[in-house]
Amino acid sequence: MSGGTELGKQAKAYMDRGDLVPDEVTNAMVRDRLAQQDAQGGFLLDGFPRNVAQAETLNKILDDLGERLDAVLELKVDEEEIVKRLSGRRSCRNCNNVQHVVYDPPATEDVCDVCGGELFQREDDREEVVRHRLDVYHEQTEPLVSFYANEGILVTIEATGPVDEVTARAKAALRNGS
């Protein structure tokens, strides 16, 4: 989306409301991206697929490319912690640095520590939008846990704690395959 493509602009409008991007838009973006040369040696998808239909389409895309998923990582976090994490994020209008009002507060309120630019809360990080996103997750995305468990590639970790600890748990789980 940072490239400003038409597909990216369409996706951003949905995400700003906290809604899922329609499958036809998302699938086209993923298909285009995975076909690029730098994805041939491996890739990591974050936030896709968001529903079982997208997962099935992803399998078809990967089959066409002669690829497969090695693992799907599920990060388990308490819902109130998710709300706190996301609604507390602030982004810099100048350099896109991300800080957090609790976990990484700026030295001066609403001022980026990196460049001095203005920090703002993204539309999709407002608490009511985050809660709506969680409702959408339970309805549309949560069924993927069973989908990938049935495929034998689901890896689940506890994702509460400092970023470096969660990262270490994720790396260890992916190395061990469980």
From TrEMBL:
Domain notes per entry: Consists of three domains, a large central CORE domain and two small peripheral domains, NMPbind and LID, which undergo movements during catalysis. The LID domain closes over the site of phosphoryl transfer upon ATP binding. Assembling and dissambling the active center during each catalytic cycle provides an effective means to prevent ATP hydrolysis. Some bacteria have evolved a zinc-coordinating structure that stabilizes the LID domain.
**Pathway named in the protein's UniProt entry:** Purine metabolism; AMP biosynthesis via salvage pathway; AMP from ADP: step 1/1
Cellular localisation: Cytoplasm
Binding residue positions for Zn(2+) = 92, 95, 112, 115
Q: Which organism is it from?
A: Streptomonospora nanhaiensis
Coarsely, its chief localization is cytoplasm
Which residues take part in binding ATP?
Answer: 89, 161
Task: Report the EC number(s), separated by commas if there are several.
Answer: 2.7.4.3
Q: Domain Adenylate kinase active site lid: where?
A: 89-124
According to its UniProt entry, what is the function of this protein?
A: Catalyzes the reversible transfer of the terminal phosphate group between ATP and AMP. Plays an important role in cellular energy homeostasis and in adenine nucleotide metabolism.
Tell me the keywords, alphabetical order.
ATP-binding, Cytoplasm, Kinase, Metal-binding, Nucleotide biosynthesis, Nucleotide-binding, Transferase, Zinc
Query: This chain belongs to which protein, by name?
Result: Adenylate kinase
Q: Which Pfam families match?
A: ADK, ADK_lid
